[in-house]
Design a protein that fits this description.
It is a single chain. The protein is of the alpha+beta class and 525 residues long. It folds into two domains: 184 residues, Dipeptide-binding Protein, Domain 1 (Dipeptide-binding Protein, domain 1); 230 residues, Dipeptide-binding Protein, Domain 3 (Dipeptide-binding Protein, domain 3). The strands form four sheets. Strands 1, 8, 9, 10, 11, 12, 13, 14, 15, 16 and 17 form an eleven-stranded mixed β-sheet that branches. A four-stranded antiparallel β-sheet has the order 4-5-7-6, with helices on one face. A two-stranded antiparallel sheet has the order 2-3. A hairpin with a 6-residue loop joins strand 2 and strand 3. It is globular and about 70 Å long.
Length: 525
Amino acid sequence: MIKLPLLALFAALSLAAPHLHAKTFKWASAGEISTWDIHSQNNALQNGLHAAVYESLVYYNSRSFKIEPMLATSWNLIGPSQLRLNLRKGVKFHDGSDFTADDAVFSLNRAMAKTSNFTPYVTGFDRIVKVDAHTIDIFTKGPNPVLLNQMTELRMMSKAWAEKNNSVEPKDLRNVSQETFANRNAMGTGPFMLRQWVPDQRMVFARHANWWGKMEGNVTEIVYTPIKSEATRIAALLSGEVDLVLDPNPADLPRLRSNANLKVIDGVENRTIFLGMDQFRPELAGSNIKGKNPLKEVKVRRALYQAIDINTIQRVTMRGLSQPTGALVSPQVAGWSEGVHQRLPYSVDEAKKLLAEAGYADGFEVDFACPNNRYINDEEICQAITAMWAKVGVRAKLRTLPLATYFPMIQRFEASIYMLGWGVPTFDSLYSLQSLTRSVGTGGDGNYNLGRYSNTRMDYIVDRIKTETDEPVRRRLSTEGLQLQNDTVAHIPLHNQVIPWAMKKAIDVVHRADNRIDWRLVQIN
């Protein structure tokens, strides 16, 4: 009489056990993402969130940053321009359907679409061929020395799901009126499923019970809250409302480090913050200079560069959490050198002299656009630069926008001068040179060259690097390209970000150079 109820109670408790040990990880940062379409917008915060739900064929190990298998278990070169990948068997999408070669071929082709912002990752791709249900071949237009590195950011989508939901093509973020199912919904193979997304409020992820991999961490639910206000983010951490803040204000770090209940871990990010300039339009919108574009003059661009007191920005605005640089890439990236790292000297007098020589002794007015919730102290940096430029007669009309609207705006070429931070997921300078300095073209060429800089020597260098397999030659060409960017002031480098993560003592995470949380490793003690 008593045994049956006890057995029933034991069974009920056994079924409930996973829920008794459920761990919710709550975190915050300043930015909100603009889409859940995995090929629509390419930025680091968004890619990191997408990686919880959608997986790539290969990925970086978070501790060693060596490439490791994900949805592909192995790969080998059949020839110089043919890579064969063997796909993992038994992988299920969140709707229970099987992941197969059809999905891989579809996803890689989707990344190559005209509306995709992921074309830098498919540079040199010719065609994708299904060999059998769990094998594909990638044919390239020539040897590609960074093919596997590029593939770490090419996530897989269900072909059947995309076709069913009219999402075969990526959403074009420049078209603000366009709406697609994949823009607001997600369905991948990853360790977590997107359960709820209320833009600008919260994003909730739940563990995928049938995930193929092994979870090292113990998190069963993730809650992300975008909090633009720096003070509010820190208050949320101090009160226990969130477990981790990805982007604490440098000014708050001393008190966070001294708090016995918290810890701060730091790391240099492979991201360089810089300014881009419109070098294409014959006349700048909103400027008092009519009939010509001052930013087309290299002396003007150099004057803007040398008018920036980067050491003061590092000391005052960044509280030491930045690495001033003259290079377009950080030291972790192949092609970087001490030579390209050296900045032009700060000099108000030299800046004034250059402006006068260019015919702008009285300066000029110019539009200046910056994000206000993407990079560490982004708005404050732009405010400081605006004041510095005023000293040499350049009257920048600063406007700041949130991440979700800022990036589509600059991609429509609507800013005369703009701030951008560029991480390098491939850890190879081709990714930066092709996207930022190659003349605007197809296949990823100049896809973020929003100032539309153009230089025939640069185009030659970039095109050589795409297929050059002799490593010393390739590195020499990469360094030459980075130096040419400096000599022509294609952009104005500012600094490499040093990223602190602030969190509760009970949280264990692995700090990655791409400022991305690996959801498989988060442990709550």
